[in-house]
Amino acid sequence: MKIKPLSTALEDLYEARIFYEKQGEGLGEYFFDSLFSDIDSLILYAGIHQKVFGYHRMLSKKFPYAIYYQVEKETALVWRVLDLRQDPEKTRQTLDTHH
């Protein structure tokens, strides 16, 4: 399985990285590394996660974030990486903009 993070997911990761770096020096880098490790695991596990709002949703192991992706042929398209602490309705609206 191949992984293709889309620009929307990369923007989500970048914004969250900045947020966490402001919380403590090095925390942003740790967040970034942790989330990319989670995303890399899709090589083996893409498609096994529950579907939420029309996307597979993988929960991050170390941060309150979810990775929303779809499987097309042999590629996991990572659409968004969103904070789980926000209103689920906001998450749904954010994901609906891609359909």
Would you summarize the structure shown here?
The chain has 4 helices and 5 strands. The protein is α+β, with helices and mostly antiparallel strands and 99 residues long.
Secondary structure blueprint with pairings:
Layout: E1 2-5, H1 7-23, H2 27-40, H3 42-45, E2 51-52, E3 55-59, E4 65-72, E5 75-83, H4 88-96
Parallel strand pairs: 1-5
Antiparallel strand pairs: 2-3, 3-4, 4-5
Characterise this structure.
This protein is an alpha+beta fold and about 100 residues long. It has one domain: RelE-like (YaeB-like fold, 2-Layer Sandwich), CATH 3.30.2310. Helix content is about 45%, strand content about 30%. The chain has 4 helices and 5 strands, in the order E-H-H-H-E-E-E-E-H. The chain has a 5-stranded mixed sheet. Helix 1 (about 5-25) runs antiparallel to helix 2 (about 25-40). The protein is globular and about 40 Å long.
Biggest β-sheet: strands ordered side by side in the sheet: 1-5-4-3-2
CATH topology: YaeB-like fold
* Envelope shape: globular
Question: In percent, how much strand structure appears in the residues?
Answer: 25-35%
CATH architecture: 2-Layer Sandwich
H and E order = EHHHEEEEH
Classified in CATH, the superfamily is: RelE-like
Count of individual domains: 1
Task: State the major sheet.
Answer: 5 strands, mixed
Instruction: Briefly note the structural class of the backbone.
Output: alpha+beta
Helix coverage percent? 40-55%
Rg from C-alpha positions? 13 Å
